[in-house]
């Protein structure tokens, strides 16, 4: 329950991303700056937090032991997550991007076979490859139908080809974010705290943000003052607060792939916060009846998915986390 609550609270702060990215796009800002500035602004906050906790040496030790893994999975978890989301903001309103992001419910479920779970059996604790939970996956069909519904309004307005500018990048991001996060949890294996891990991933993903910033400087010039300020707020609210809350939630259930998928599913609640935020702060039109029906289906799918992901087996505490007891 605690993990689910943290996930929902993090989605409130993540909603700032979709609202302000849309705001920057409407004011003529480039998605290249929206993506890169967020991580540039995150860096000093995270460095200060880790330095004050006197844990920087531990982070450097971990990163120096497996630098390639850090570069790869940080690129996946941060780069292939946020760059596509920023790009999608140029093709549709924030609520549409946030609603499509609910595809992460399906993506998280499908990733289960790539990881192992520690299970208590009669012969001891063993690592068992995760299986795709079919009932929660079946519930995800509700989410998929909801996503189709919310794109109905958009397709009627701009056409199917332009709608792909939202759909395809978000599908990539929906797989990349949980994959990168889970791989980094597996890599760190509880040896780093959340702030250390987020800082390490931010540092390891810097090459991508530097490349995007240089390309933006060459093609569109410097960002406006307005875009810099809004990117700062995105970095604090979404990059630091929301990311730390979400990573904390997933850390609580990191040994259970089905519970992980359930926590990741809480991110679909962002669409509610984004609709309200765009309506009050950007004076945006509310979604039509078709899109609102789709949003309702997405929320229903999240609730059903979370319910079906609950485990029947007893969970016992082990030294580095939770171990499921087979039944």
UniProtKB/TrEMBL annotation:
Protein name from the UniProt record: Multidrug resistance efflux transporter family protein
Keyword Transmembrane helix among UniProt keywords: yes
Record-annotated membrane-spanning stretches: 31-51, 71-89, 95-116, 136-152, 158-177, 198-220, 232-253, 265-283, 289-308
Keyword entries, A-Z: Membrane, Transmembrane, Transmembrane helix
InterPro entries named in the record: EmrE
Source domain of life: Bacteria
The organism's taxonomic lineage, starting at the top: Bacteria, Bacillati, Bacillota, Bacilli, Bacillales
